[in-house]
Amino acid sequence: MASWSRLVRFVDSTGRETLGEPILPDDQELEDWLASDERWTVELQGSSSPVGPLTRGEKIQVKELRPVVRQSDVPIIRCIGLNYMKHVQEAGRKPPPYPSVFIKPNTCVAGFNEDVPIPQIAQDGTVDYEGELAIVIGKVGRNITKESALGHIAGYCASNDVSARAWQRDPEKAGVVPQWCFSKGFDKFAPLGPVLVSPSLLGNASNLHLRTLVNGEERQNTSTNDLIFDVETIVSFCSQGTTLEAGTVILTGTPSGVAMGMKPPKYLNDGDVVEVLISGLGSVRNKMVFE
Ligand SMILES: *[C@@H]1O[C@H](CO)[C@@H](O)[C@H](O)[C@H]1NC(C)=O
Ligand SMILES: *[C@@H]1O[C@H](CO)[C@@H](O)[C@H](O)[C@H]1NC(C)=O
Ligand SMILES: *[C@@H]1O[C@H](CO)[C@@H](O)[C@H](O)[C@H]1NC(C)=O
C-alpha cells in the first residue's frame, strides 16, 4: 500500500518542510539514525499527510525532524484499555472479554518532543504516564477482518497515553463508574512519533520491547507479547459497525509499571520528562508542564 517503509517529516537546509523515508546506512538501527548528526532521506512528494499518496523523489538531508503525525492528519484517536495482562492485575481488574475501547479527541495529538501542558483541573498529584504502541490507519475500512487488518495499517509509532487518574477513577471526581474520555482527553495528552514504520518492515507487533523512563528512571520494561488482544484483533474489533478513516490513530494499551500501580504511587510532577521507547520505532520524549 504505502510507498515507504519508514516515514518522517523534516525541515531541510532551505527551511522547506517535507515528508521523507530515512536512508539507514548498512546495519544502522533506526535509533542510531535518529541520534545522528548526518541524516539523509528519500523525499516523498505528493501530499503533506502521512496517509496521503506519496511518490519517491530526491535524496535530501535532514536539518531538523518535525512531528510526522499532526493533529490535522488525525480524525480521532481510539484507545484500548486493560490490554496487557500484568497491567490488568496491577489495576486490580479482570481481563475484559472484548477489547475495552475509549476515545481521545484529535486535540490530544502532540509531537514527539513537545511539552505536554497539565491543566489546572488535573494538577491534583495523580497525573500518570502510559507507554503504548500506536497504530496509524492508512486505508479507510469498516467491518475489517483480522486477516486483512494489516493491509489497513499505514504504520506504527511510539506514544504515551497521558492520564489524570483521579478524574478517571476517584469516585469523588468520576462518580462510581470510572470515566476515561475526560481524564485522558486533555490537549496534547497523546504524544506520537517520531517515525512511522510499516507493518511489513516492523513484522510481528507482539514481539517489540517497550520501555518507559521518567527523568531517566525505568518504570515500564516489557515485551508487547503480554498484549491480550493483538493489533489485528484490535483493528478488526474497532471497525465493527464503525468506519475507521485514514489517519485514525489507535493506542493499543499500556503494560504494567504505571505510577498508579507502584506502592506508593510515583505520579508525575511539573517538569518531569517522560520517554517511551519501543524497539524499532524510536521514542517520544515529553516534558510535563503545569500550566
Ligand atoms: C458488517 O458486518 C455485519 C455482520 O458482521 C454485516 O451484517 C454488515 O452487513 C457488515 N457491513 C458492511 C458494511 O460490510
Ligand atoms: C528490562 O528487560 C530486559 C529484557 O527482558 C532485561 O534484559 C533488562 O534487565 C530489564 N531491565 C531492568 C532494569 O530490569
Ligand atoms: C507474534 O509474536 C507472539 C509473541 O511472541 C507470538 O505468540 C505469535 O505467534 C507471533 N505471531 C506470528 C504471526 O508469528
Automatic annotation (TrEMBL):
<comment type="similarity">
    <text>Belongs to the FAH family.</text>
</comment>
<protein>
    <submittedName>
        <fullName>Fumarylacetoacetate hydrolase domain-containing protein</fullName>
    </submittedName>
</protein>
<dbReference type="GO" id="GO:0046872">
    <property type="term" value="F:metal ion binding"/>
</dbReference>
<dbReference type="InterPro" id="IPR036663">
    <property type="entry name" value="Fumarylacetoacetase_C_sf"/>
</dbReference>
<dbReference type="InterPro" id="IPR011234">
    <property type="entry name" value="Fumarylacetoacetase-like_C"/>
</dbReference>
<dbReference type="Pfam" id="PF01557">
    <property type="entry name" value="FAA_hydrolase"/>
</dbReference>
<feature type="domain" description="Fumarylacetoacetase-like C-terminal">
    <location>
        <begin position="77"/>
        <end position="288"/>
    </location>
</feature>
<dbReference type="GO" id="GO:0050163">
    <property type="term" value="F:oxaloacetate tautomerase activity"/>
</dbReference>
<dbReference type="GO" id="GO:0016787">
    <property type="term" value="F:hydrolase activity"/>
</dbReference>
<dbReference type="GO" id="GO:0006107">
    <property type="term" value="P:oxaloacetate metabolic process"/>
</dbReference>
<keyword id="KW-0479">Metal-binding</keyword>
<keyword id="KW-0378">Hydrolase</keyword>
